[in-house]
Write a structure and sequence with these properties.
Layout: E1 8-10, H1 16-25, H2 38-51, E2 57-60, E3 67-69, H3 71-76, H4 82-86, H5 88-96, E4 99-101, H6 103-128, E5 136-139
Parallel strand pairs: 1-2, 2-5
Antiparallel strand pairs: 3-4
Helix pairs in contact: 2-6
This protein binds NADP nicotinamide-adenine-dinucleotide phosphate.
């Protein structure tokens, strides 16, 4: 699937899904990035321009959940991983109040997951357009934001 691609950017790659994505892509180039900071984004774009000259893959993985998590309370519920997909886990979480939204977290979520992705993508687009293989942009999302047409 990724044959012909050489250079990739994965945002939010210091841990979790982003770190594993980078490990599998075997990236050897690291540059700090805050997707909320236009100066930081420009710095990344300039770095890629100077070091690589183009970009083949952009994985928009950096994300904010928009909620405050009571980590200990969540662990104590001992939720079966499969129940996340079925939606059962959300009922348990709501019942026990271990995940709570608030205004600040919602604002951070919107800024990171929408404006951040948009800014990073727009800044890196000219470099992606130079990919001879035809660049890929992967937006990591959530089941909760899945678009469905209700019939
Ligand atoms: N894990 C899940 O079950 C799940 C479910 C649905 C969707 N997702 C989505 O999958 C993606 C990764 O999830 P995850 O669980 O691996 O996330 P995570 O453990 O919460 O890690 C989020 C990553 O995003 C980075 N990040 C946050 N704000 C940033 C900013 N302003 N600039 C640059 N990086 C920033 C974090 O860096 P710092 O550590 O420096 O803050 C971290 O590397 C997210 O987009 C998330 O919404 C995950």
């Amino acid at each position: 699937m990724w044959f012909g691609y050489k250079y990739a950017v994965v945002t939010g790659a210091n841990k979790a899904i982003g770190l594993e994505t980078v490990r599998q892509l075997a990236s050897q180039v690291f540059h700090q990035l805050d997707v909320l900071d236009p100066v930081s984004i420009d710095s990344l774009a300039n770095f890629i321009q100077e070091k690589l000259g183009r970009l083949d893959i952009l994985v928009n993985n950096a994300g904010a959940s928009g909620v405050v998590v009571d980590e200990e309370g969540l662990k104590a519920l001992n939720i079966d991983p499969s129940s996340w997909l079925s939606g059962q886990a959300y009922k348990l979480i709501e019942l026990h109040g271990v995940i709570k939204p608030n205004y600040e977290k919602a604002e951070e979520c919107l800024n990171t997951n929408y404006h951040g992705v948009r800014r990073v993508t727009e800044a890196l687009l000219p470099l992606l357009q130079l990919s001879p293989a035809g660049a890929r942009i992967v937006n990591v999302s959530s089941l909760r934001s899945e678009l469905k047409v209700k019939g």
